[in-house]
Amino acid sequence: MLALFVVFGCASFLAQGLCCRPKEYPTSAGQCCPMCSEGTIVQKDCTSQSGTRCSRCKNGSYMNRPNGLNKCLACTSCDSGHGLFVLQVCSETTDTVCEVIDGYFCKDLDVTGCSAAQKHTPCRPGEKIKEPGTSREDAQCELCPSGLFSEHGVNCTDWTACSVTQVKLKEGNESSDVVCGSSSRSHYIVMPPTLLLVLTIVALLIRALLGVIGYSLFFN
């Protein structure tokens, strides 16, 4: 960046035969002035009687190279809402270094740290975590094999095997277990109350009728 600044500065003044040396910058007045050091910027250009007057970068800004600029660079903000935290605070000469919080991975990493993060991809029901996510890589998922299930997308578990005294009420799949129920050799018929009352009355009438018939046969 500095080399480009010097090249363009020289190009703009070639017509006047002016090309500044390293660690100098061209001014609008057609002079070459000493650059300000890291952590400072130009407050006033040099003159034939005085050198460049520099001022320090204020809080929230920095300058990480010798320069002829009149404005410091803004410090990067690490947004916790987007998965970042401050690993190294900004100083006069260095930018903020951001790092990702747990559960996120860095999508945009450079020499100054992470500038963009994203949540680890959650595995879906029917899948398990193949590779846990890290601060640099997303999580990897894979489907559960046949005979296993994953309800919450973490680990695959074997289907439940129903015992000999149970029956399978529901088949298992990749996201839910087999459902077993109790099995009974005795089967009962559940009747509505009205039908049960009618059958009781009929039974009593039949019993009474049989009693009358038996009585008649006995005396005849």
Report on this model:
The structure is a single chain. The chain has 220 residues and is α+β, with helices and mostly antiparallel strands. It has three domains: 2-74, Tumor Necrosis Factor Receptor, subunit A, domain 2; 80-119, Ribbon (Tumor Necrosis Factor Receptor, subunit A, domain 2), CATH 2.10.50.10; 127-182, Tumor Necrosis Factor Receptor, subunit A, domain 2. The chain is built from two helices and 16 strands. Strands 1-2 form a two-stranded antiparallel sheet. A two-stranded antiparallel sheet has the order 3-4. It is rod-shaped, with a radius of gyration of 43 Å. GO terms for molecular function: transmembrane signaling receptor activity. Residues 19-54, 56-98 form the TNFR-Cys domain.
In short:
This protein has helices spanning 2-13, 193-219, and strands spanning 24-26, 32-34, 40-44, 53-56, 61-62, 73-74, 84-88, 97-100, 104-110, 113-119, 127-131, 140-143, 148-149, 157-158, 166-170, 179-182. The chain has 220 residues and is α+β, with helices and mostly antiparallel strands.
Write the layout of secondary structure elements.
Elements: H1 2-13, E1 24-26, E2 32-34, E3 40-44, E4 53-56, E5 61-62, E6 73-74, E7 84-88, E8 97-100, E9 104-110, E10 113-119, E11 127-131, E12 140-143, E13 148-149, E14 157-158, E15 166-170, E16 179-182, H2 193-219
Antiparallel strand pairs: 1-2, 3-4, 5-6, 7-8, 9-10, 11-12, 13-14, 15-16
